[in-house]
Design a protein that fits this description.
The model has no long low-confidence stretch (mean pLDDT 90). This protein is mostly helical. It has four helices and no strands. Helix 2 packs across helix 4. 89% of the residues lie in helices and 0% in strands.
Length: 115
């Protein structure tokens, strides 16, 4: 697995677990769960996007690109759609989790390269 992916996973899940723990201390279980679901979904989306770029740009293993495309677009996005439609979690908690994961992706991968 790519070093950038490992760092994004580590920091996203660590920060997310701390914030979800704070939600749990406040007895907001649905917010904590939705927050973690948003983080997990966004990190999975990032992993498949990076893999697609690696395969497309480095022209490695054509079978991997078709498998990644099948998993990323129909499966991952349908799961995200059903998570939102089910209303099991507050939408703002999911969006907050996605936003945190995107912030971690930016800080971990983009910010060090600009310095």
């Amino acid at each position: 697995m790519n070093d950038a992916i490992k760092r994004v996973m580590k920091y996203s899940y660590l920060i997310g677990a701390v914030i979800a723990g704070i939600f749990l201390l406040r007895k907001e279980v649905s917010w904590a769960s939705g927050f973690m679901v948003g983080i997990i979904w966004c990190v999975l989306n990032f992993i498949f996007t990076v893999r697609l770029f690696e395969v497309a740009l480095l022209r490695k293993e054509a079978k991997r690109i078709s498998m990644s495309l099948v998993i990323k677009f129909p499966v991952l996005y349908l799961i995200g759609f059903f998570i939102l439609v089910s209303k099991a979690f507050p939408v703002m908690s999911i969006l907050t989790g996605v936003g945190l994961a995107l912030l971690v992706i930016g800080v971990v991968n983009i910010w060090p390269k600009r310095a």
